[in-house]
Amino acid sequence: MQTFTVELPIPYKSQAQTRRSDAIMTINVQRNLHYRSAAAFKLSYGAKCAAVLPKLNRQLRAVKLTYILHLQPTKGKPTKAEPYRGSNPKNIDLVNIAAVVDKVFADELVKAGIIPDDTIAYIESVEFKSNNWSDRDYITAAVEEVIPQPDHRLQGTNNEQPNRTQSPFTY
Fold it and tell me: How many other CB atoms are there within 10 angstroms of residue 140's CB atom?
Protein backbone atom coordinates (compact mmCIF):
# COMPACT_ATOMS: atom_id res chain seq x y z
CA MET A 1 0.00 0.00 0.00
CA GLN A 2 1.24 3.45 -0.88
CA THR A 3 0.99 6.61 1.17
CA PHE A 4 2.16 10.09 0.29
CA THR A 5 1.79 13.54 1.80
CA VAL A 6 1.86 16.84 -0.04
CA GLU A 7 1.89 20.43 1.12
CA LEU A 8 -0.68 22.85 -0.32
CA PRO A 9 -1.09 26.60 0.10
CA ILE A 10 -4.08 28.14 1.84
CA PRO A 11 -6.65 28.94 -0.90
CA TYR A 12 -7.27 32.67 -1.34
CA LYS A 13 -10.03 34.41 -3.23
CA SER A 14 -7.47 36.48 -5.17
CA GLN A 15 -6.67 33.33 -7.16
CA ALA A 16 -10.20 33.55 -8.57
CA GLN A 17 -10.38 37.21 -9.41
CA THR A 18 -8.25 39.73 -11.22
CA ARG A 19 -8.70 42.39 -8.55
CA ARG A 20 -6.77 42.00 -5.30
CA SER A 21 -8.64 40.23 -2.52
CA ASP A 22 -6.95 38.43 0.34
CA ALA A 23 -10.06 36.74 1.70
CA ILE A 24 -9.67 33.02 2.25
CA MET A 25 -11.62 30.92 -0.23
CA THR A 26 -14.32 29.05 1.64
CA ILE A 27 -17.37 27.19 0.38
CA ASN A 28 -19.44 30.25 1.31
CA VAL A 29 -17.24 32.59 -0.75
CA GLN A 30 -17.06 30.15 -3.67
CA ARG A 31 -20.83 29.70 -3.72
CA ASN A 32 -21.31 33.46 -4.16
CA LEU A 33 -18.69 33.90 -6.90
CA HIS A 34 -19.57 34.39 -10.53
CA TYR A 35 -19.14 31.09 -12.37
CA ARG A 36 -16.17 32.44 -14.35
CA SER A 37 -14.38 33.49 -11.16
CA ALA A 38 -15.10 30.11 -9.56
CA ALA A 39 -13.75 28.33 -12.64
CA ALA A 40 -10.64 30.56 -12.65
CA PHE A 41 -10.03 29.72 -9.00
CA LYS A 42 -10.37 25.99 -9.66
CA LEU A 43 -7.86 26.18 -12.53
CA SER A 44 -5.40 28.28 -10.54
CA TYR A 45 -5.57 26.25 -7.33
CA GLY A 46 -5.75 23.00 -9.29
CA ALA A 47 -2.45 23.84 -10.98
CA LYS A 48 -0.85 24.33 -7.55
CA CYS A 49 -2.22 20.96 -6.42
CA ALA A 50 -1.06 19.21 -9.60
CA ALA A 51 2.44 20.63 -9.23
CA VAL A 52 3.02 18.79 -5.94
CA LEU A 53 1.46 15.43 -6.83
CA PRO A 54 3.93 12.56 -7.22
CA LYS A 55 4.17 10.50 -10.39
CA LEU A 56 2.92 7.00 -9.57
CA ASN A 57 3.49 3.93 -11.70
CA ARG A 58 -0.03 2.61 -11.09
CA GLN A 59 -3.49 3.70 -10.08
CA LEU A 60 -4.49 3.30 -6.46
CA ARG A 61 -7.51 1.08 -5.81
CA ALA A 62 -9.06 3.24 -3.11
CA VAL A 63 -7.77 6.05 -0.92
CA LYS A 64 -8.32 7.71 2.41
CA LEU A 65 -7.70 11.48 2.36
CA THR A 66 -6.61 13.44 5.43
CA TYR A 67 -6.26 17.22 5.37
CA ILE A 68 -4.54 19.17 8.15
CA LEU A 69 -4.95 22.94 8.23
CA HIS A 70 -1.78 24.41 9.80
CA LEU A 71 -2.17 27.92 11.16
CA GLN A 72 0.46 30.24 12.58
CA PRO A 73 -0.76 32.14 15.63
CA THR A 74 -0.50 35.89 15.16
CA LYS A 75 -1.17 39.00 17.17
CA GLY A 76 -4.02 41.32 16.46
CA LYS A 77 -7.70 41.08 15.80
CA PRO A 78 -9.31 38.78 13.23
CA THR A 79 -9.98 40.28 9.81
CA LYS A 80 -11.84 38.97 6.79
CA ALA A 81 -8.50 38.09 5.20
CA GLU A 82 -7.18 36.42 8.35
CA PRO A 83 -10.11 35.17 10.43
CA TYR A 84 -7.74 32.96 12.43
CA ARG A 85 -5.67 35.91 13.62
CA GLY A 86 -4.96 36.22 17.34
CA SER A 87 -3.23 34.08 19.94
CA ASN A 88 -6.08 31.57 19.95
CA PRO A 89 -7.09 30.89 16.34
CA LYS A 90 -10.67 29.75 16.80
CA ASN A 91 -12.47 32.13 14.47
CA ILE A 92 -12.38 29.88 11.45
CA ASP A 93 -14.62 27.09 10.20
CA LEU A 94 -12.28 24.24 9.32
CA VAL A 95 -14.69 22.45 6.98
CA ASN A 96 -15.44 25.63 4.99
CA ILE A 97 -11.80 25.81 3.88
CA ALA A 98 -11.03 22.09 3.73
CA ALA A 99 -14.08 21.32 1.56
CA VAL A 100 -12.82 23.70 -1.13
CA VAL A 101 -9.35 22.17 -0.97
CA ASP A 102 -10.77 18.63 -1.00
CA LYS A 103 -12.89 19.23 -4.11
CA VAL A 104 -10.02 20.66 -6.14
CA PHE A 105 -7.42 18.18 -4.81
CA ALA A 106 -9.64 15.14 -5.49
CA ASP A 107 -10.24 16.36 -9.05
CA GLU A 108 -6.47 16.69 -9.53
CA LEU A 109 -5.94 13.13 -8.22
CA VAL A 110 -8.25 11.95 -11.03
CA LYS A 111 -6.55 14.12 -13.68
CA ALA A 112 -3.13 12.81 -12.61
CA GLY A 113 -4.38 9.21 -12.93
CA ILE A 114 -3.80 8.41 -9.25
CA ILE A 115 -7.43 7.30 -8.79
CA PRO A 116 -9.96 6.49 -11.53
CA ASP A 117 -12.75 8.70 -10.15
CA ASP A 118 -13.45 10.88 -7.12
CA THR A 119 -16.60 9.04 -6.04
CA ILE A 120 -17.17 7.01 -2.89
CA ALA A 121 -16.14 3.90 -4.80
CA TYR A 122 -12.53 5.16 -4.78
CA ILE A 123 -12.40 7.65 -1.88
CA GLU A 124 -13.19 5.64 1.21
CA SER A 125 -13.01 8.49 3.71
CA VAL A 126 -12.08 12.15 4.08
CA GLU A 127 -10.82 13.58 7.36
CA PHE A 128 -10.21 17.20 8.33
CA LYS A 129 -7.90 18.24 11.19
CA SER A 130 -6.29 21.45 12.38
CA ASN A 131 -2.96 22.43 13.90
CA ASN A 132 -3.35 25.85 15.50
CA TRP A 133 0.29 26.26 16.49
CA SER A 134 2.25 25.98 13.27
CA ASP A 135 5.26 28.01 12.20
CA ARG A 136 3.43 29.13 9.03
CA ASP A 137 0.08 28.80 7.21
CA TYR A 138 -0.39 25.81 4.89
CA ILE A 139 -2.43 22.66 4.37
CA THR A 140 -1.11 19.11 4.45
CA ALA A 141 -2.93 16.56 2.30
CA ALA A 142 -2.18 12.90 3.03
CA VAL A 143 -3.26 10.23 0.55
CA GLU A 144 -3.28 6.69 1.90
CA GLU A 145 -4.09 3.69 -0.25
CA VAL A 146 -6.63 1.36 1.34
CA ILE A 147 -7.80 -2.07 0.31
CA PRO A 148 -11.54 -1.89 -0.33
CA GLN A 149 -13.47 -4.29 1.85
CA PRO A 150 -16.34 -6.26 0.28
CA ASP A 151 -19.79 -5.61 1.65
CA HIS A 152 -20.58 -8.80 3.54
CA ARG A 153 -24.10 -7.71 4.48
CA LEU A 154 -25.44 -8.63 1.04
CA GLN A 155 -23.62 -11.94 0.66
CA GLY A 156 -25.36 -15.25 1.33
CA THR A 157 -23.89 -18.16 3.26
CA ASN A 158 -22.60 -21.46 1.87
CA ASN A 159 -22.17 -20.07 -1.66
CA GLU A 160 -25.83 -19.04 -1.87
CA GLN A 161 -26.83 -16.13 -4.02
CA PRO A 162 -27.59 -13.06 -1.91
CA ASN A 163 -31.28 -12.35 -1.35
CA ARG A 164 -31.58 -8.81 -2.71
CA THR A 165 -35.27 -8.52 -1.84
CA GLN A 166 -34.50 -8.36 1.87
CA SER A 167 -32.96 -5.36 3.52
CA PRO A 168 -29.36 -5.89 4.66
CA PHE A 169 -30.40 -4.21 7.90
CA THR A 170 -32.39 -6.07 10.54
CA TYR A 171 -34.73 -4.36 12.93
Answer: 16
In angstroms, rounded to a whole number, what is the distance separating the alpha carbons of residues 44 and 38?
A: 10
**Domain covering 3-149 in this structure, CATH number:** 3.30.1330.70
Tell me whether strands 123-131 and 63-70 are parallel, antiparallel or unpaired: parallel
- In the chain, domain spans: 3-149
Question: From CA 34, how far away is CA 83, in angstroms rounded?
Answer: 23
Give the model confidence (pLDDT) of 44-59 as tens digits.
999 999 999 988 878 8
Give the SS3 label for residue 38: helix
- Residue 166: Cβ-neighbour burial (10 angstroms; 0-12, 13-18, 19+): exposed
The pTM score is 0.75
CA–CA distance, 84 with 73 (Å, rounded to integer): 8
Burial bucket for residue 139 (CB in 10 Å: 0-12, 13-18, 19+): buried
